[in-house]
Amino acid sequence: MKKSKVETAETRKRIVEAAARAFRNNGIHATGVAEIMSAAGMTHGGFYRHFASKDQLVAEACAAGMETIVHSAEAAGKGGEEAFLKHLVTFLSDEYRDDCLGGCPLVAVGSELARADMETRRAASQGFRELIDVIVKQISFDDPAAAKGEAIFAVSAIIGAVTLSRIVDDPELSDLVLEESRKRVAEFWAKSPQGALE
Questions:
Q1: Helices and strands (H and E) in the chain: how many
Q2: How many domains does the chain have?
Q3: Whole domain around residue 133: which residue ranges?
């Protein structure tokens, strides 16, 4: 019996979600198609009914992961300035650092994304742009270029800090990276004309 378009779309979504989790946990190159399909509750043979290649799946998993992060930031922005700042600072917490299964693809597999195919890099780049746009909407600089520059710095600093806090083998240094970055993000936010921390 042939599956409906809705069932096919749901199956594809399940595979993408399983892939995104597996990539964040193990890395892209260390995760095989068979492992992803097993995590999705399917056999390896069904993969090519949904995707032309693993690269296509990587691109879609990256896009889905970035979409989740962007929607989360947008939702936080609707809660006001303090809620949005709290959302940003949450990325610099011990809990976020230690949760390798959740979170941003740019943190979890950023070095692999840099060497990925153009479709995957395009998905990552689009998500990065959208994150920047969300932050720009939250800061009230009169100069749009300055606002964009500050937003690029904030997102880059957060991604870099979380990545480094996961890499270093010294727990105290890891905590210090997060602590100092939280301070700097708060300072960045306080520079914004809306003065969220006043």
A1: 10, 0
A2: 1
A3: 53-191
pLDDT of residue 144 exceeding 80 = yes
- In degrees, to the nearest 5, what angle opens at C-alpha 126 toward C-alphas 146 and 65? 120
C-alpha–C-alpha distance, residues 187 and 183, integer Å:
6
Task: State how far the Cα of 101 lies from the Cα of 123, in Å rounded to an integer.
Answer: 19
Whole-number Å distance between alpha carbons of 144 and 190: 17
Q: Give the amino acid at 36.
A: I
Give the integer Cα–Cα distance in Å for 36 and 46: 11
Residue 93 domain flag? yes
Q: If DSSP codes are grouped into helix, strand and coil, which group holds residue 172?
A: helix
- The model's confidence at residue 20, banded by pLDDT at 50, 70 and 90, is very high
Q: Which of 64, 68, 14, 4 is nearest to 42 (CA)?
A: 14
Q: What is the pLDDT of residues 21-64, one digit of tens each?
A: 999 999 999 999 999 999 999 998 889 999 999 999 999 999 99
**Stretch 83-112: mean pLDDT:** 88
Lowest mean pLDDT segment, chosen from 35-39, 72-76, 86-90 = 86-90
Q: What is the CA radius of gyration of the chain?
A: 19
- Write the CATH number for 68: 1.10.357.10
- d(CA 85, CA 63) in angstroms, rounded, equals 24
